[in-house]
Task: structure prediction
Amino acid sequence: MSKLVESIKKAVELVELKDGMTISFHHHMRNGDFVLNMVMEAIAELGIKDLTVNASSVFDVHEPIIGHIKNGVVTGIECNYMGAKVGKAICEGIMEKPVVFRTHGGRPSDMEKGTSVIDVAFIAAPTADDMGNCTGKVGKSACGSMGYAFADAMNAKKVVVITDNLVQYPLNDFSISEVYVDYVVAVDQIGDPKGIVSGTTKITRDPVGLKMASYAAKVIDASGLLKDGFSFQTGAGGATLATAKYVQDMMLERGIKGSYGMGGITKYMVEMLNNGCFQALLDVQCFDLDAVESIRSNPRHMEVSATHYAGVSGKSAGVDNLDVVLLGATQVDVDFNVNVHTDSNGYIMGGSGGHSDTAAGSKLAIIIAPLSRARLPLVVDRCLCTTTPGSTIDVVVTQRGIAVNTKYGKNKELKEKLIAAKLPVCEIEDLKAMAEELCGVPKAVKLTDKVVANILYRDGTLLDTIKAVK
Amino acid sequence: MSKLVESIKKAVELVELKDGMTISFHHHMRNGDFVLNMVMEAIAELGIKDLTVNASSVFDVHEPIIGHIKNGVVTGIECNYMGAKVGKAICEGIMEKPVVFRTHGGRPSDMEKGTSVIDVAFIAAPTADDMGNCTGKVGKSACGSMGYAFADAMNAKKVVVITDNLVQYPLNDFSISEVYVDYVVAVDQIGDPKGIVSGTTKITRDPVGLKMASYAAKVIDASGLLKDGFSFQTGAGGATLATAKYVQDMMLERGIKGSYGMGGITKYMVEMLNNGCFQALLDVQCFDLDAVESIRSNPRHMEVSATHYAGVSGKSAGVDNLDVVLLGATQVDVDFNVNVHTDSNGYIMGGSGGHSDTAAGSKLAIIIAPLSRARLPLVVDRCLCTTTPGSTIDVVVTQRGIAVNTKYGKNKELKEKLIAAKLPVCEIEDLKAMAEELCGVPKAVKLTDKVVANILYRDGTLLDTIKAVK
Result:
């Protein structure tokens, strides 16, 4: 018995993909992914139309999807993150149906609850056997964790594994089991592993970034959470990575034994694991090749599914025990709502990812961002859209001041602690004033009435919408 | 956040167990298991009645369940295997409702299809953290694989993990994830690891057994399946283990590189893995402590779920690619149907386990059994009950002759190969005659009309019934 078929086109025929269906993809190859484009090309050649593409993230490399929207192959997109190239086209109104944005935890949970139905999942697998057992840990296109793909594999009606490293059955140390897989296709190349390292994944050298990082580290210290059992998530931005470095220094100096680091994992988190700051990493995706090497070789660096990472459909998730998360923002408003979906001009260039999941789950959710970017202020009266509700955000750290969110009846004690630590605590309105002093009050962005995206919160409810730019 | 509660009784209250519900257990602690008895005692003390117990296997250690049946706490049992002590009581008619027997593959698949609903699963976990991540690989009561427990964890409405080795969150190298677990209870001891080694798990020294083993090995050799890529399952009986030894010798002598060994795993299969006869072991349960040590330390020795091992609800299972399986029998009839549920007197003392799953999936299913036991013949006109349909059995090997099953339009070529190999090939009727010559024709077993057990085939259909003994 073998599930190997000779081409993607053949697999698409065998799964009986029809007009109007929903197909899914995961994004562990990030901006190096070839699979989404290859599959869409095969589908377009077969003349199938009116598809919804549910991809955990859409990167700039997926720009060809714009063509598929224009010719009617794709009429719907659902994702947790969308890069600026496709985002701009969406904001110009090229698609009739609004994009559905979810969170990294909400996406698998909506599949598990049955509110998001996937007809066919296409799994980019760096290594697989001919029955569909597969892993991201080894192979020439190794991406490490395949955490986001678990829900697709487990919930889609049909599953096609696409690999560029077909090995003899049974694959050792599989991540996704053959029990979920219908067909396997071997191709020359599923992606460019260099593309995995996309976005900023180096510690900033910019003095503004270092200032913010220093403040953020002091906030964590003053919070009282930095003690044995400490758990931590940080992103891949330059200032957040610098914060992680400062946090590591404090942990090593004081001999603090943390419990776990989580999230998209970078080499900086791997270093913390190896230096004994954590007993484990919970890895839903690898942000760089050092993380890929670590998850392959260190059993304390564990792959977790997106549900295990941040879902709401399971009995618990990693985010539920998280102490501190460091998050970015393009806009924060005076109610502490955060926007990471659009830039300040209203164009989509991001998405929640795990932003609102970790903010909701963690004890201390810190936004770290410069007071202004390109002469546009960080803090505004009202975000162009809300990615993460203000009620789940605790502190906003900028290079000029730190606002503690006491607007929802919490964090009064935290505010006192930060003041006692002589940190530059101020009100969110003060940050807004400082930013406007730097940049002036920005002109209102002109939007049309056309809704181009619906933002679903992690529980599946509608949180906000994004409108087309005029 | 923590899911730890102070006692089993408290967990039973928190999951709101009610009269009439179904609870489940897995059997990796085998005849050393304490958990089923502890839980039933707590439930009995709470005065809950009319429960159905779905345990992947019921061993002699679970004899106290007889008391719970008599006092109305337990009114239904579902399992894949039942030891002689409880089996005898069932055959004496102590329970109103018939026992439901499934197979190791059918049990998880019936859960996944929704035809077997579990209200509360109790998972005996040799190591767990307070959120429910758990594993059988480490801990003082380490049992190795927890393969049968996956379906319970993933499909039960509520899940309680019971451990005697609670570790700091997050547990490294977990098998079952916290996403499935509601509560965790820490107890002194979940079982006696010595009890894992139950039943025969040593190579036979008996000349009859060695004769059968030698024939079985020659059948495998003559079949043409013993070549690179060979896959193999064997049980833990003395003669089957001797066969495995002979097969290993041939593989090493000829430099044959097999693909995988599967099933309940013994030290003999581990030895074959370590000697390069297999590239991997797919382990759904460990039969001895050498297997436990191997699954802990050798990544090529892989834990698989029961669905992955033998299910019919997944897209494929390990059994689907199996070349050869060696199976036992208490009775074989002239249509090659096999009974491993009852002894020749009609008393339950076993069950399918993976018997009918592997027979159905494998290319060559070999029954290996002595022509008679305790003056009762192996081959009979009609089995007291059918565990495994004759259509899925290929060869019956005894110490006096080998019957090839050509009754279902298959195996003609195989029969010629065995004759060419000068093996003592005969008809199944010849084996019956030989057995009767040794033992005489046995008296008919006297059964009542009362059905005490229904045997479900792996697809969930009714295969046969077992009636109370007079």
Observations:
- Chain B has a mean pLDDT of 96.
